[in-house]
């Protein structure tokens, strides 16, 4: 590797995907990492780009095992065939959405039971900083209020490999599954991130992608677009890449400002700002309650109460007829009325 770029962040594109769009990637280098065409980024964190893969978390497991990932390295793909959600449920992965995995710091709160809500907080803050108002259905589902109701526009799943923790994330940008395709007893319909494909945002994120490359390479890539088939579809993916570049940058800034330099109480208070159903009476299906510092299932499969905040270890605080409860697991939905 050239010593002048060995310490810089890289954008590494899987060779099979690069061959599929050879005209665009022909000026990228193939000698930095085996199996990838790579270029240095004016971005700060390595990004591994794939075309079609089983899932970004599967790619995380492989790359982590090869020692290729650093803190805040990320993986993004155009299409995944076997995405997964909580409890290993299949995640409906549709074209032109965002599918990623992001390596989280090996430090509190990500090495504690609060990792899931802390990851949700970073994504919610980062999206807000980019102009997208979202809320969090505890612990880390991304939701928006659209037409007077909540819709789920994304989800985060944490997985660990070789001492590294990654947040596998899907955000619906262009498409979302119909209610009939969702699992039984779903509580919130799927939706798309509102306003993402507005023309000014498309231009903004496409510019971010090109501005992350060295100027000569950016111009070469732009000139090559006229030689590509399905140019419009490929540009949509570049827009999504630019969006991810911007989102990771904001996530890192939010981590430094809200979590790294603050105590547990501070980031918990920040999470409360984004907490969906705060103050509402909710039903928690398959509730798991923390009792005497141990985890124990409640006697009933369902638990009702009012959400009042977040505990120091990321648990949901619920005011119920039995008193204050610390919920560490379960599916949350608002009770109508």
Explain how this protein is built.
- By secondary structure, the protein is an alpha+beta fold.
- It is 29% helix and 30% strand.
- The protein has eight helices and 14 strands.
- The strands form two sheets. Strands 2-1-3-4-5-9-8-7-6 form a nine-stranded mixed β-sheet. Strands 10, 11, 12, 13 and 14 form a five-stranded antiparallel β-sheet that branches.
- A hairpin with a 5-residue loop joins strand 12 and strand 13 (316-320).
- The radius of gyration is 21 Å and the shape is globular.
- The termini are far apart.
Show the helix and strand layout.
Layout: E1 10-14, H1 15-20, H2 22-25, E2 36-40, E3 47-53, H3 56-65, E4 74-80, E5 98-104, H4 115-129, E6 135-137, E7 141-146, E8 149-161, E9 164-171, H5 199-211, H6 215-224, H7 231-260, H8 264-274, E10 281-291, E11 294-297, E12 302-310, E13 316-320, E14 323-334
Parallel strand pairs: 1-3, 3-4
Antiparallel strand pairs: 1-2, 4-5, 5-9, 6-7, 7-8, 8-9, 10-11, 10-12, 10-14, 12-13, 13-14
Average pLDDT figure: 88
Report the helical percentage: 25-40%
- The tally of beta strands, per DSSP, is 14
Describe the sheet with the most strands: 9 strands, mixed
Number of helices: 8
Principal-axes geometry comes out as: globular
Task: Measure the end-to-end span.
Answer: 63 Å
| Percent of residues in β-strands | 25-35%
Strand order of the largest sheet: 2-1-3-4-5-9-8-7-6
Structural class: alpha+beta
Rounded Rg: 21 Å
